[in-house]
Write a structure and sequence with these properties.
Radius of gyration: 21 Å
Number of helices: 5
Oligomer: single chain
Structural class: alpha+beta
Largest sheet: 3 strands, antiparallel
Number of strands: 3
Order of helices and strands: HHEHHEEH
Distance between the termini: 48 Å
Helix content: 55-70%
Strand order of the largest sheet: 1-3-2
Length: about 110
């Protein structure tokens, strides 16, 4: 990955590192919600929910559009798939390392016989 890709990965994982933001993602992936409707679901101020939505939007995980006075948020499935792809890539790296460790252990083990 180049520097821009690493910055994008940092933003995605930072955005998803918070429990409230993950819950907001679940909601907006299920369907479009106004930010005020989202705020009503949490025991925090509207401004706090608005900040969570802004973090998700900056990371590219949600998009917002304005309808009248309301801001409607919806989840970006493509962005979420890119997170899944990154995790799959990391899993493959670690599986390869584990496989090599297993080979080294088998090679170094004394032969019975």
């Amino acid at each position: 990955m180049n520097g821009d890709d690493e910055d994008r990965a940092d933003a995605l994982f930072r955005a998803l590192s918070d429990r409230t933001r993950r819950d907001i993602m679940r909601r907006v992936l299920a369907g479009e919600h106004s930010v005020s409707a989202l705020a009503a679901k949490y025991d925090m101020s509207f401004a706090a929910v608005q900040k969570h939505v802004a973090v998700l939007e900056k990371a590219g995980l949600i998009t917002k559009r304005r309808t009248g006075r309301e801001h409607l948020a919806s989840g970006d499935v493509t962005a979420l798939r890119s997170v899944a792809a990154m995790l799959t890539e990391l899993e493959q790296v670690w599986r390869g390392r584990i496989g090599r460790i297993d080979e080294l252990i088998a090679f170094d083990s004394p032969k019975e016989g």
